[in-house]
Write a structure and sequence with these properties.
heterodimer; A: 280 residues; mainly alpha; MetI-like fold; 82% helix; B: alpha/beta; six-stranded mixed β-sheet; four-stranded antiparallel β-sheet; 10 helices; 10 strands; 40% helix; globular; binds adenosine-5'-triphosphate; binds magnesium ion
Chain lengths: 280, 287
């Protein structure tokens, strides 16, 4: 009797420990699989480098192989060059994306709430959305006084649509009963926005921002080929012009790593804003 | 019991606080104090020549309704599905405007929703991104009475038996517990009139019976006027002082009867059972 009573909490504790261990194991396994995936990518890269080195016509590009690239990357990191080339790019993406959020979220909420605005705007927005952001480049260069402004505009054009459409879709999925209940409890339109609509669609907005960031990061590099003398796109162009292929490879790697990191941050934010219980 | 008395006692305490403030030259909004005074009794509801037709509908959904509910009375609206019970409740609550006639609460025509009369719907529709306490406090927040949240919400949660869940997410709660949060949310602004639209129909029989008793008890403690829509005769007999039977096409009231099921509103009690049977017969004959 007493033994059973004592073993009860012990068993509960060991259950908790077991659950913790199982979670840790699952986490380790997914980490290991992720590392394996990166390993395969690295192996393919090494294979490509070896092939280039073998082929007589392509010998000039041998510096693109992993070892020279990573050596150069280390060198660049030590001299602070990575930050110097990334900061202007991050700055431009930040401005473009920030303006896209400021425009896209309110527009998305209005489109989601007002049927007539949705009908009115649907055709023009779908048409504009399908135009590659880069095709605005000549117009952007004419319209804006500085290269920086033109690039920010291109990033804005690329990222406003996913944010706007994800927001509108989220608003349309809001349970009408929530709005009815809040009206019944005396909510004014500002209360509705702050306490109902924005929390309800926070996750949708973050998902839109994540999509937008992916597109913006892709558009950034070609946009920086023009005019400006800073940023990752410029660094790529510069490395090509000076035939410094190790530097080119290192810059490409930096672009990929930063993009991946930003995307992971967005994913964390999406999880943070999600109010849906995954375990139910 | 403790929770109820502390909630009821909150009012004399309010009076003392107001007195202390006015003595110290600190004035609160006088209208709010007047409102709190009126709360001591429930609202008086008057329905005058009420008609409603939905846009695009051929016939009236409600036709020339005429009745009064006295302060503190619990009235059950019973009728078959589609006879217009929910429509009537939405009109009383100011969530819709009638085509003709009007609803008067304490002599004032209802033009919009107001925290003094709250509708409680079939589904609790709690906000899943908030805790139990935050959901219950929504009405106070919207009314700009944030200062009262800390004082009012804990006794209210005790009243509905959810003190232990105050800081839990509402998604962790059972259906019955969620409906009790919705009840606390409806009561937080100290309404004079509670409009219930089949609030327990999604619950299991056991929870439903318990909540029916609870809501009647709470309404009586607080002196609230209650209009309850239901198609469950037993629910009407357990909860109401009076039943209005509605018939469809167009929706109208065909029977108006006071209920006297005795002090013990329970199906084991013969007096209750007789009164329930009488209401059931009336319902079958007219609805
Ligand atoms: N939004 C609407 N537009 C048009 N007709 C409606 C609308 N809502 C309800 N009706 C009609 O009005 C009538 C009454 O509906 P109501 O919802 O008030 O019925 P009810 O008595 O509450 O029924 P139930 O017990 O099924 O909830 C029904 O015939 C319904 O078809
Ligand atoms: Mg109904």
């Amino acid at each position: 009797m007493t033994e059973a009573a004592f073993s009860q909490p012990d068993r509960a504790r060991s259950d908790a420990v077991n659950a913790r261990i199982a979670m840790l194991q699952g986490w380790l396994r997914s980490m290991a699989i992720g590392a394996l995936g990166l390993g395969i990518l690295g192996a393919l890269w090494a294979l490509g480098g070896w092939y280039i080195a073998q082929s007589p016509g392509m010998f000039a590009f041998a510096q693109l192989a992993p070892v020279p690239t990573l050596e150069r990357l280390w060198d660049m990191a030590q001299r602070g060059e990575i930050w110097d080339m990334s900061a202007p790019s991050l700055n431009r993406v930040g401005w473009g994306l920030g303006i896209a959020i400021l425009v896209g979220v309110p527009m998305g909420i209005l489109i989601g709430r007002l049927a007539w605005l949705r009908d009115l705007s649907n055709a023009p927005f779908q048409l504009l959305r399908m135009i590659s952001p880069l095709s605005w480049m000549p117009i952007a260069i004419m319209a804006f006084a500085t290269w920086d402004a033109a690039i920010i505009f291109l990033i804005f054009v690329a990222s406003v649509w996913p944010i706007m459409f994800a927001t509108a879709a989220g608003v349309k999925r809001i349970d009408p009963a929530w709005l009815k209940v809040s009206r019944n409890l005396g909510a004014n339109p500002v209360h509705m926005l702050v306490y109902v609509i924005l929390p309800a669609i926070a996750q949708d907005i973050m998902t839109g921002i994540r999509l937008a960031l992916g597109i913006a990061w892709v558009v950034l590099v070609p946009a920086e080929y023009l005019g400006v003398s800073s940023g990752l796109g410029f660094a790529i162009n510069d490395a090509r012009d000076s035939l410094d292929y190790a530097r080119l490879g290192a810059t490409v790697l930096v672009i990929g790593v930063i993009g991946y990191a930003l995307d992971s941050l967005c994913l964390l934010a999406i999880k943070r804003f999600s109010w849906l219980r995954s375990d139910t | 019991m403790n929770a109820i008395s502390s909630f009821v006692q909150a009012r004399p305490l309010d009076g003392i606080l107001t007195l202390a403030r006015s003595l110290s030259g600190h004035h609160d909004d006088p209208r709010r104090d007047a409102k709190a005074e009126r709360n001591a009794t429930g609202a008086h509801v008057q329905i005058e020549g009420l008609q409603h037709r939905y846009k695009g509908a051929a016939a009236n959904c409600l036709d020339k309704l005429e009745f009064k509910v006295t302060p503190g009375q619990i009235v059950a609206l019973v009728g078959r599905s589609g006879c217009g019970k929910s429509t009537l409740l939405h009109l009383i609550g100011g969530l819709m405007q009638p085509s003709a006639g009007g609803v008067y609460i304490d002599g004032n025509r209802v033009k919009s929703a107001c925290p003094r009369w709250v509708v409680m719907f079939q589904a609790p529709s709690l906000f899943p991104w908030m805790t139990v306490a935050q959901n219950a406090a929504l009405g106070l927040r919207f009314a700009g009475r944030k200062a009262e949240i800390a004082k009012r919400i804990p006794p209210l949660l005790e009243l509905v038996g959810l003190t232990a869940f105050a800081d839990r997410n509402v998604q962790d709660l059972s259906g019955g517990q969620q409906q009790r949060v919705a009840l606390a949310r409806s009561l937080a602004t100290q309404p004079e009139l509670l409009l219930l639209d089949e609030p327990f129909s999604a619950l299991d029989a056991f929870t439903r019976r318990a909540l029916q008793q609870d809501v009647r008890r709470i309404a009586k403690e607080l002196g609230l006027t209650v209009v309850l829509v239901t198609h469950d005769i037993t629910e009407a007999a357990i909860m109401a002082d009076r039943a209005l039977v509605m018939a469809p096409d167009p929706g109208r009231i065909v029977t108006d009867t006071l209920l006297d099921p005795g002090p013990e509103r329970h199906r084991d009690n013969p007096q209750f059972e007789a009164e329930r049977a009488r209401l059931a017969t009336l319902f079958e004959a007219t609805a």
